[in-house]
């Protein structure tokens, strides 16, 4: 079994703003090199349990995952299967913990790497790097007022 991955960081805004930026304005902070099409505006996150996370690219859709928890503005959960298929999805839980009126701790926990078999440890390491880089982009978008 591969351990749960945990990444946490702070952003200078309310939990409501952080949650909305993550869920409603993905194109403002998700980097182009973390997409299939090269266009972050092509990412869609449907804001409800059972909602899809996908990318529209060149007339096709690429499934990324499905929303499993929708509790604005404090929690978002999803099964993440970008590049591996739904049967091998990992579980991602993102908590937005208020630290005051203008500060929020964003905590990402990802589990279920054992579903990836022999590549589980490598996938966990790659995902840590990915989430840590995404944290920088989210923080920058918030600081720009997006």
Could you provide a short overview of the structure?
The chain is of the alpha+beta class and 146 residues long. The chain has helices at 15-24, 26-29, 120-143; strands spanning 5-11, 43-45, 52-57, 60-71, 75-80, 90-100, 103-111. It has a single domain (5-143), classed as 2-Layer Sandwich (Alpha-D-Glucose-1,6-Bisphosphate, Chain A, domain 4).
Structural summary, described in words:
By secondary structure, this protein is α+β, with helices and mostly antiparallel strands. It has one domain (5-143): Alpha-D-Glucose-1,6-Bisphosphate, Chain A, domain 4 (2-Layer Sandwich). It has helices at residues 15-24, 26-29, 120-143, and strands at residues 5-11, 43-45, 52-57, 60-71, 75-80, 90-100, 103-111. Strands 1-7-6-5-4-3-2 form a seven-stranded antiparallel β-sheet, with helices on one face.
Sketch the topology as an H/E string, one letter per element: EHHEEEEEEH
Task: Give the name of the CATH superfamily.
Answer: START domain
State the shape. globular
What is CATH's topology name? Alpha-D-Glucose-1,6-Bisphosphate, Chain A, domain 4
Tell me the CATH architecture. Answer: 2-Layer Sandwich
Give the neighbour order of strands across the main sheet: 1-7-6-5-4-3-2
DSSP helix count?
A: 3
Mean pLDDT: 93
Q: Rg to the nearest angstrom? A: 15 Å
Give a count of the beta strands, DSSP E runs of length 2 or more: 7
Distance from N terminus to C terminus (CA atoms, Å) equals 39 Å
Low-pLDDT runs of 5+ residues are: none
CATH class: Alpha Beta
């Amino acid at each position: 079994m591969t351990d749960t991955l945990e990444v946490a960081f702070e952003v200078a805004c309310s939990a409501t703003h952080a949650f909305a930026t993550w869920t409603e304005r993905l194109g403002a902070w998700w980097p182009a090199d973390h997409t299939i099409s090269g266009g972050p505006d092509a990412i869609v996150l449907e804001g409800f349990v059972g909602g899809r996370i996908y990318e529209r690219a060149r007339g096709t859709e690429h499934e990324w995952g499905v929303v499993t928890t929708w509790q604005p503005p404090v929690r978002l959960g999803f099964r993440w299967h970008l590049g591996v298929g739904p049967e091998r999805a990992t579980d991602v839980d993102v908590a937005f913990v208020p630290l005051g009126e203008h500060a929020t701790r964003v905590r990402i926990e990802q589990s279920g790497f054992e579903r990836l078999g022999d590549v589980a440890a490598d996938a966990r390491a790659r995902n840590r790097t990915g989430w840590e880089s995404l944290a920088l982009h989210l923080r920058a978008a918030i600081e720009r007022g997006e």
